[in-house]
Every structure is written in structure tokens, then in C-alpha cells.
Amino acid sequence: MDIILLQDVQRLGSKDDIVTVKDGYGRNYLIPQGMAVVATESAKKVMAENTRQRAHKEAKLKDEALVVADKLKELSITIGAKTSTTGKIFGSVNNIQLAEAISEKGIEVDRKQITIPKDDVKEVGKHTAKIKLHKEVVVDFEFDVVSE
Prior knowledge:
Elements lengths: L1 E4 L12 E3 L2 H8 L5 E3 L2 H34 L2 E5 L6 E6 L1 H10 L9 E2 L5 E3 L1 E10 L2 E11 L1
Parallel strand pairs: 4-9
Antiparallel strand pairs: 1-2, 1-3, 5-7, 6-8, 8-9
């Protein structure tokens, strides 16, 4: 079944992408949740017109995301955590703590834009997270975790 996504769906596609999904996934989840519509000829024409009108707005958003990406590359973040004597963290450092630390430096990043490749950060040291500022702008962001 071909559908047109009305919003970004993680691991599937971005807004206005035409993707092929299994019939049940499309009919029972994506369409009722308002995340997609069936890709009929008329829906494709409407989507093409909307995409054409939105093109210059997307270019402006991408430029803004590139400016934020440059600021993030220059930024160094250190997050303190309670640790044992072996360097293991009690609990873990997650994307919420990372987003708060970045916002304290004056750059607003939503926690949903941050992906930490490992499941959790549970040790002291340097770690890397991916920050998706735009569908074409992804920044590898390094941060340090230190013992408090």
C-alpha cells in the first residue's frame, strides 16, 4: 500500500514522503492516527502543489539549522553524574539531561531531536550523540560525562 506521510514518522520517512507499507500498518495505525493518507492520484497532485509552495520555507529552515549546527560543533558540554569508584554511573545520562545542558548554553534543542547511539550512557568519559536539526542536517555532538 502506498501512502503519503502527513508528518515525520521515525524509521519510516519524513513529511510528504510517499512510502510503501503493509496494508494493515497503513489502514489500522497510520491513517487513523492522522499520520498518513492513501496515495491516490488527487492526493499526489495536492501534495506536489503543497511541496512546491513550501520549498522556499524549507530552504530557510535548513539555513537556520546549519547555523545552529555550527554553534553546536563549537560547544563543549560536561555533564556531572554520581559514580562509583570504578567509574560506573548510578543510573544513566539520557537525552533529557543533554538537552537541558545544551539549553543552559543558550541553544534550544528539543530532546526528541537527540539520539544517543548506545542504549544508555553509564560510564564516565567522552560520548557522542546525534542531533537531528533538520531532515538533511544531522550533527554528531560530543559531550563529556564526569564524576561529581
